[in-house]
Design brief:
Shape: flat
Number of helices: 3
Helix content: 25-40%
Number of strands: 6
Structural class: alpha+beta
Order of helices and strands: EEEEEEHHH
Oligomer: single chain
Distance between the termini: 48 Å
Length: about 120
Amino acid sequence: MNAGGFYDPDWNSNGAQPHGTVISNGVVVSDFDDANMGGGFVGFNKDNDFIINLDANYFDEVDKLKTELDSKRPIPKETLKSLKESINLEWTYNSNGIEGNTLTLRETQVVLEGITIGGKSIKNI
């Protein structure tokens, strides 16, 4: 079983320390508890049984965060528009990077705005 991710504070993608618990053949081989995150454990055992072991206050924290989010509503339309644009940019940049694209985040933003890297409109290509 693998951890939920990897602790990589410098964004080097160099196989940093697992973020979560790693179990191999029923033995905990890594348990990175420095992440300042709780929650518990969800996964499959060697017999393919699904295991859920959540901290007792897990849903209390979820409820607290939901209440905080609700206190910010309604979210202004301009804020929503900005959030959608930001998410679209990040998703596009990261998915392109996975496929080997070497554009920077700023270059990706320029392309999404309809301008090619050479400065010409996409419509003119």
